[in-house]
Write a structure and sequence with these properties.
CATH superfamily of the domain at 50-143: Cupredoxins -  blue copper proteins
Helix content: 10-25%
Low-confidence stretches: 36-49
CATH topology of the domain at 50-143: Immunoglobulin-like
Number of strands: 9
Number of helices: 1
Order of helices and strands: HEEEEEEEEE
Mean pLDDT: 77
Strand order of the largest sheet: 3-9-8-5-6
CATH architecture of the domain at 50-143: Sandwich
């Protein structure tokens, strides 16, 4: 019995020695002279935090014309994906989006928050009219309540 206890004691001492030897190592690495920069940007939203109510409407513009006469939406945050062929164009939506330039032959994302149902006129014109007869194109954004079309 005495013999068995001494082997157990030797085993425990060996384990303690290994833990101390492995656990007490020190690391040296390069330490920056300056403090690390602090990011003031908002954190990247995780999938569970993403706004699932964000609707996307794609608007294609070709030869100074909208691809549709009427676009449908519901109140809430909206991403307008503006695909411009030709241009550059000037784009606006009455009471929702101030006039802004859409660069030629690009895709531009316009974020808008629509609070009230109704009809809103979308305006489009060439940013650099090539003639005095350059015309404006319009379309209608119809905003209904959720569940209506």
């Amino acid at each position: 019995m005495q013999w068995r206890q001494s082997w157990v004691a030797v085993g425990l001492v060996t384990m303690v020695a290994l833990v101390v030897a492995v656990g007490c190592t020190t690391r040296q690495g390069a330490q920056p002279d300056q403090p690390l920069p602090v990011s003031t940007a908002s954190p990247v939203p995780q999938p569970q935090q993403a706004n699932t109510d964000l609707q996307t409407i794609t608007v294609t513009i070709t030869n100074n014309q909208f691809d549709h006469d009427v676009y449908q939406a519901h109140p809430g945050d909206t991403r307008l994906v503006m695909r411009a062929h030709g241009g550059p164009y000037l784009f606006s939506i009455d009471r929702l989006v101030d006039q802004r330039e859409l660069p030629a032959d690009t895709e531009t994302v316009v974020l808008v928050s629509i609070t009230d149902p109704g009809q809103y006129t979308m305006h489009l014109g060439l940013s650099t009219p090539q003639s005095a007869t350059a015309t404006e194109s319009t379309a209608t954004l119809t905003v209904g309540t959720v569940g209506t079309r």
